[in-house]
Amino acid sequence: MASEELVQKLQRRLQLEESRGAAEGEEVAKGEEVVAGGDEERSCLTASADAELSAKLCRRQDINEGAAQPRRAAVFNPYTEFKEFSRRQIKDMERMFRLYDSGRDGYIDLMELKLMMEKLGAPQTHLGLKNMIKEVDEDFDGKLSFREFLLIFHKAAAGELEEDSGLLTLAKLSEIDVSIEGVKGAKNFFEAKAQALSSASKFEAEIRAEQDERKREEEERKHRRAAFRELKSAFTQ
């Protein structure tokens, strides 16, 4: 009886040890799976980061080679980006840009630039027109946006255009009147305007001048209407 009881106890102990060993084995296996999973995840993240960096480097190379267009911010404020120009100058440039943007798509393409240069009395060859666009075409789309159009005058002001450049010819022959400033050439004109006032005070003064001009125009219209009514009443009496 005692021997049977001892045998049963030994069997139960063996079963407990076997079950404990199996549990420990499962924990070890799970730990190995977690480690392997972590290594695999880190490997995937590293591969993803490498791929993203590689894509950025490839895009930068394409932009440098002219095969891709750089992404530009959607918001463009000419008054803050081109502070060397007065509000009136920028408005004049905008009117000129819209005048020759016959397609009303916000761009001046090759044919529209051709018409512009002909109207200014300085016709260009097809190659000359393409070179003109290329000088300021930052996004490589083969046409001029309003920002790129302003760059023409910016480069003229900074003396960054060659004397035989079609863009310098455009700046000098543009419909923007420079003679009233008492200086010769677009470069001196823009330098004189840039040095006349500080950016902040100049901006405020120009706004006040525009408001005063609108008030004067409104007063003149009132006087003309009053004079017309007096003349009309004199004939009807």
TrEMBL record:
Residue ranges annotated for the EF-hand domain, each copy included: 88-123, 124-159
Assigned GO CC terms: mitochondrial inner membrane
SUPFAM superfamilies: EF-hand
UniProt keyword annotations, A-Z: Calcium, Metal-binding, Repeat
PROSITE patterns referenced in this protein's UniProt entry, alphabetically: EF_HAND_2
GO molecular function (one): calcium ion binding
Signal peptide location: none
Transmembrane domains' residue ranges: none
Region annotation Disordered: where it falls in the sequence: 17-41
Top-rank lineage group of the source organism: Eukaryota
PANTHER family, sorted: EF-HAND DOMAIN-CONTAINING PROTEIN D, EF-HAND DOMAIN-CONTAINING PROTEIN D1
Protein name: EFHD1 protein
Species assigned in the record: Jacana jacana (Wattled jacana)
